[in-house]
Amino acid sequence: MQDNNNLQGNDGTWSKGKVRQIRGLMVFGAILVLALIYSNTIYGGAVLVLEMFKPFLYGGAIAFVLNLPMKWIENKLLGKWHGKSADKLKRPIGIVGAILFLVVVITVVVSIVIPQMSQAMMKLANEVPPFLEKTAAVLIQYSQDYPELKTQAEQLQDLEINWQGIVTSVAKFLKTGVGSMLTSTFSVAGSIIGGVVNFFIAFVFAIYILSQKERLGDQGCRIIRAYLPKRAAEQTLRVLALLHKNFSSFITGQCLEAVILGMLFVIAMTIFRMPYAVMVGVLIAFTALIPVVGAFIGCAVGAFLILIENPMMALWFVIMFLIIQQLEGNLIYPKVVGNSVGLPSIWVLMAVSLGGSLFGVVGMLFFIPLLATGYTLLRENVNKRNGVVVHTTSVSQTQKPVAKPQKTQKVQKKKR
User: Judging by beta carbons within 10 Å of its beta carbon (0-12, 13-18, 19+), is residue 181 exposed, middle or buried?
Assistant: First the structure.
């Protein structure tokens, strides 16, 4: 009887709430139909808007990455500084320190990988011809039992490739070609100028965000609370805080995992006297920033370089890679990093597959924290519907489901 009264009034007509609900559904349906009809126009407009705001999006991404080392510098290194002058100096020192840290990391990676890669290419020029001759000799030896191999062996033996010239050109390009190419292109290509301008705008915007992040955060909270109902505003702020936590935890966890994995490879390859230990370790650490598949890219490059010098050692390198991957993934990473985003492995694989198919490597990096946020919200909603209360003191804390008591507390109304 009470439900019917909610739907209809005393005179049999629909209530205002029901009319408002139906009106909202009709408006939503009309908007959805228009969006489908003009989907190409909407897509073109969205691309244009994204292109206009691209420097600011890049600036936000740079600020988010730099914020992690900046917070560490402010809280750990300068945490004992107190006073008005110290508080004013913490932020500039933190920003400069974070930028220097990022520049040093990039410089170290480039200075280690490029020279050793160039050296490996030069060695490749000397090792490939004898390697092909040995392979052809083996094929000719077995061609008596397998005649179909004879043709391939003769073709391989007659193959003449100027490996020295090719590798010398590649090595020269790695050393000086990139800089000269950019220098010559910069004078004639307007796209390079636009890229430099966009990077400068993004960098300045990132510095502004870092220097005023508390003020910008407070302004954003006030805007959300001003234009949304109280419950919707609090829920929106909570979701944004959860997104920030998941993205920060994911980036920190990936970087720490990459460093640990690279160090393990350098140590193991040095112990077993494998070539290119430092270069392969740095390369694997750098590619391991790509979730799931990144380390295997570094493994493929390292195995190819070792294969030219010693095929049997390349096989042992692949076996060592699989062992270290299992050790790091199952023992070290959970203890050192923990469940950084609280996402099960199958969901991580789904996020990497979805993000990679839609947006490439960037999608892989973004979809894991996004899916982790959705997973957390879905888990809370499922717990709520199943009668499990989730006590949350703050968004940053881990939420533990607690069994709902059988007797519910009734709110006593104040007697007038």
Answer: exposed
Model pLDDT for residues 379-415, shown as the tens digit of each residue? 888 888 887 765 443 444 444 444 444 444 444 444 4
In a domain, 317, yes or no: yes
CB 265 within 8 A of CB 281: yes
First-residue to last-residue Cα distance in the chain: 29
pLDDT above 60 for 149: no
Q: What is the dihedral of CA 174, 176, 181, 184, to 10 degrees?
A: 180
Rounded to whole angstroms, how far apart are CA atoms 54 and 201?
Answer: 10
Cβ-based neighbours of 213, under 8 Å, separated by 6 or more: 63, 67
> Are 115 and 176 contacting, i.e. CB atoms less than 8 angstroms apart?
no
- How many angstroms separate the CA atoms of 388 and 333, rounded? 31
* Alpha-carbon separation of residue 360 from 42, 78, 250, 293 (angstroms): 23, 39, 18, 12
Residue 121 or residue 319, greater confidence: 319
**Residue 364 burial class via C-beta count within 10 angstroms: exposed 0-12, middle 13-18, buried 19 and up:** buried
Q: Which of 325, 313, 337 is CA-nearest to residue 257? A: 337
**Please, are residues 356 and 368 in contact by the beta-carbon 8 Å criterion?**
no
3-state SS assignment for residue 388: strand
Supply the range of the domain harboring residue 264. 243-383
Select from 278, 283, 279, 315 the least CA-distant residue to 296.
283
Tokens of 114: 């490029």
Structural domain tally of the chain?
Answer: 1
Q: What average pLDDT score do residues 334-341 get?
A: 59
The answer to whether residue 118 is domain-embedded is no
For CA atoms 100, 258, 364, 293, give the dihedral sign.
positive
pLDDT of residue 337: 53
For the stretch 200-249, pLDDT in tens is 898 999 999 999 998 999 999 999 999 999 999 999 999 999 988 888 88
Rounded to whole angstroms, the maximal C-alpha distance in the chain is: 107
Q: Residue type at 75?
A: N
Q: Could you tell me if residue 253 is inside a domain?
A: yes
- In terms of Cα–Cα distance, which of 401, 53, 396, 61 is closest to 240? 396
- Assess if residue 283 is contained within a domain: yes
Task: Read off the pTM.
Answer: 0.65
